[in-house]
Write a structure and sequence with these properties.
This protein is α/β, with parallel strands linked by helices. It has 3 domains: 79 residues, 3-Layer(aba) Sandwich (Rossmann fold); 211 residues, Mur-like, catalytic domain (UDP-N-acetylmuramoyl-L-alanine:D-glutamate ligase, 3-Layer(aba) Sandwich); 144 residues, Protein-Tyrosine Phosphatase, Chain A (Alpha-Beta Complex). The chain contains 14 helices and 22 strands. The chain has a 7-stranded mixed sheet with strand order 7-6-8-5-11-12-13, with helices on both faces. A 6-stranded mixed sheet has the order 17-18-22-19-20-21, sandwiched between helices. A 3-stranded antiparallel sheet has the order 14-15-16. Strand 17 and strand 18 form a beta hairpin. The protein starts with 7 loop residues before the first helix and ends with a helix. 50% of the residues are buried.
Length: 459
């Protein structure tokens, strides 16, 4: 149930690959998850109806988008069917016969997980993996490999209505990459301390023989890492980390080039075909994990040079009439800022128009006003969609995007708020002059906005 989720869809495909018969339900689905399921031979039913439980399944995996009063969930409980959350199913069917490499943190989880899965695969380690997105270089976002590693994106969000803890507590980490720690998911964590407590519990799961790879550029990550019982390696862009770039990063439109110091191999040059300092940082984390597992430095560097990222992460959909459309998952202010910086590197001198949908239950909250004002200052033009969950936020909780647009406009970045996505699409097309880059930012489907933009430009 909720089979189209970014973790649920690859899990469904993994189970199908393992030989189980899988069916599922969700709302209307969009690429990449719809195509992922289709390629696996899974054709979800649309909508939730108790009749979908016939014939009776042996096991029901329930995603965190399903509420307790969902008619299918109510019927599943009435019938006494076995229910598990997504992470419970992952632990039961896959993690028990692998060593887990878990990637956690507020930002960068999907790209870093995909990067690690690609490096281990390209270097012949045949890892198992589950990635909450669609990697461009791997056959799929899931695989039950014969190697000893299983690489998994460690989401801090809740698992299911009956399993309210964070997903990552089910993942049995032997190695943990912690990319960042910023406040998010205010609907689940009412205070920052509640979120930090979840990360503390994750770190406490690491055995003494384990390995914590922590981004030392973030003070909160350093603080959290201090409780680890195992070896800790700090990585990041700052020179006070154990692992950092030597000298300047060469930021080219088509790649980021940098050097690292390795204990065995000495000075190694890495060319990463991705823009943005945040992706250099992600690569450092993967380097640390892969080298600790004995993968030769030259092999890791060669794998990096052939990594092209994940769909919906700085994902260029195409160019029509001289206008380029890029789709991105950014929804937290820090992610918005990093995305815009990376776009400046990839498209130097071009006009950046940001289309932003406040999709998550946190993205539409008032305490992000000033961080968003700073983040969107990196665009040339900003168009805001309505708050997706506006009805679930009180007036006191809700961010006034009209006031934010006014503040941005006053600061030199013209911005406005559309009353609906149709109006936003029309406005974006009016802004689509030659040489522009239109970037859509949303943690959800955005009603297919980037694809609709691309099709409209072609017409």
């Amino acid at each position: 149930m909720a089979i189209g989720g970014t973790g649920m869809a690859p899990l469904a495909c993994l189970l199908q690959e393992q030989g189980h018969r899988v069916r599922g339900t969700d709302g209307p689905l969009y690429p990449p998850m719809s195509t992922l399921l289709e390629r696996a031979g899974i054709h979800p039913m649309v909508g939730y109806d108790p009749a979908h439980l016939e014939p009776r399944p042996d096991l029901v995996v329930i995603g965190n988008a399903i509420h307790r009063n969902n008619p299918e969930a109510v019927e599943a409980e009435r019938l006494g069917l076995s229910l598990v959350s997504m992470p419970q199913a992952l632990g039961r069917f896959f993690l028990d016969h692998h060593r887990s490499l878990v990637v956690a943190g507020t930002h960068g989880k999907t790209t870093t997980t995909a990067m690690a899965a690609w490096v281990y695969t390209a270097c012949g380690r045949d890892p198992g993996y589950l990635i909450g997105g669609a990697p461009k270089d791997l056959p799929a976002s899931f695989h039950d490999g014969a190697g000893d590693r299983f690489i998994i994106e460690g989401d801090e969000y809740n698992a299911a209505y009956f399993d309210r803890g964070p997903k990552f507590l089910h993942y049995q980490p032997e190695t943990l990459i912690l990319t960042s720690a910023e406040y998010d998911h205010a609907d689940l964590y009412p205070t920052e301390e509640a979120l930090w407590s979840a990360y503390e519990r994750l770190i406490d799961l690491l055995p003494e023989s384990g390995f914590l790879v922590a981004c030392g550029d973030t003070p909160k990550v350093r603080e959290l890492a201090s409780r680890a019982r195992c070896r800790v390696l700090f990585y990041g862009l700052a020179a006070d980390n154990d692992l950092h770039p030597l000298g300047e990063i060469e930021a080219l439109p088509e790649a980021s080039r940098f050097r690292v110091q390795d204990e065995e191999a000495g000075e190694v040059e890495i060319t990463l075909p991705l823009a943005g300092g945040h992706n250099v940082s992600n690569a450092l984390a993967v380097w640390a994990a892969a080298r600790r597992d004995g993968i030769p430095a030259a092999d890791v560097a060669a794998a990096f040079a052939r990594f092209h990222g994940v769909r919906r992460r700085l994902d260029e959909l195409g160019t029509a009439r001289g206008v380029t459309v890029v789709d991105d998952f950014a929804h937290h202010p820090t992610a918005v800022e990093k995305t815009l910086e990376a776009l400046r590197q990839r498209y130097p001198g071009q006009r950046l128009v940001a289309l932003f949908e406040p999709r998550s239950l946190t993205a539409g909250r008032h305490f992000f006003f000033e961080p968003y004002r700073q983040a969107f200052a990196g665009a040339d033009r900003v168009l805001f969609a309505p708050i997706f969950h506006s009805g679930r936020l009180t007036p006191e909780e809700r961010l006034d995007f009209g006031a934010l647009a006014e503040a941005l406009t006053t600061g030199g970045v013209p911005a406005e708020v559309s009353t609906d996505n149709e109006g936003l699409l029309r406005q974006a097309l009016e802004e689509a002059r030659e040489g522009s880059v239109l970037v859509t930012m949303s943690s959800g489907s955005f009603e297919g906005m980037p694809y609709r933009l691309m099709e409209a430009l072609k017409r």
